[in-house]
Amino acid sequence: MERASYPSDLSDEQWELIEPVITGWKQARVARSATGDPGDCDLREVVNAIFYQNRTGCQWRFLPHDLPAWSAVFYYFTLWRQDGIDQQIQELLRCQAREKARRLEDPSPVAMDTQTIKAAAGIPATTTGPDAGKKSPGRKRGLAVDVLGLIISVVVLAASAPDNAAGIKLLDQIAARCGNRLEKVLVDQGFKDEVIIHGAALGITVEQVKRDPDQKGFVPQTKRWIVEQANGTLLLHRRLARNYEHRLDNSASHVFWASIAIMVRRLTVPSPRWRDNVEVMA
């Protein structure tokens, strides 16, 4: 008997977007296997389970019984992270989303920022630390996004790490993924000369978007607001609202899967048109 669907499940149309990558990975793994046994786990259901956990924030062992066993889901989550499948799907969908928006595959401007996320109890102290600026212990998540808010790269560090450390890692990833069209990376004042110099060495102009000293409270900064919006959107996935992962690369992988869930919806669900439901007044 088929199970009832969850709101986070992939539709048939959404599964078609990522199925070729998953199938290609499975075939390549079977070819390398000594037994040649492909296994009988439904990989679409594994992806559904990852989406469910990301959206609800539940623990691995608390995955519903009508989804694959939590151990199988974690097994594939780990394999896909190690083989870079999560990033391959992310890159494929990002290019498709940009094409749908009638933009070239590689962006020219990019915005990047960091966000401190509190760590859950039991997370190794060696991978966490206090954020000196925000006075909050946890981990620091760095994002680089294009003008559509699509994630290009992710780094996760202890919150005690300076923004420059995150910025340098992000710049290296951006340079590898964005090709020669990349012209400018927009940052806030937390990123200092070290990042600007590293960007120059990579042939990238790093521009600080400075805050107006007369502004009080949170005010979205021109051109950089899109990365703030991306950070806020990620927090709708409860697994990302607090850092539960013992491994830093697992934390980054959860961000990629959240981004994948956002993009498959963007690529398949028509944008709402509020005017369609408004009666025209004579």
What would the average pLDDT be, to the nearest integer?
A: 87
Question: What Rg, in angstroms, do the CA atoms define?
Answer: 20 Å
Low-confidence stretches: 278-282
Could you give a short account of the major beta sheet?
6 strands, mixed
Order of helices and strands: HHHHEEEEHEHEHH
Q: What portion of residues is helical?
A: 40-55%
Strand content: 5-15%
Number of contiguous helices: 8
Number of strands: 6
Q: Given the C-alpha coordinates, what overall shape results?
A: globular
Question: Class by helix and strand content?
Answer: alpha/beta
Distance between termini?
Answer: 53 Å
Give an account of the 3D structure.
The protein is of the alpha/beta class and 282 residues long. The protein has helices at residues 12-32, 43-56, 70-83, 85-100, 163-178, 193-201, 225-234, 248-268, and strands spanning 109-117, 129-131, 136-145, 151-158, 184-187, 205-208. The chain is globular, with a radius of gyration of 20 Å.
For this entry, give a set of tags.
single chain, 282 residues, alpha/beta, six-stranded mixed β-sheet, 8 helices, disordered C terminus
Topology:
Layout: H1 12-32, H2 43-56, H3 70-83, H4 85-100, E1 109-117, E2 129-131, E3 136-145, E4 151-158, H5 163-178, E5 184-187, H6 193-201, E6 205-208, H7 225-234, H8 248-268
Parallel strand pairs: 1-5, 5-6
Antiparallel strand pairs: 1-3, 2-3, 3-4
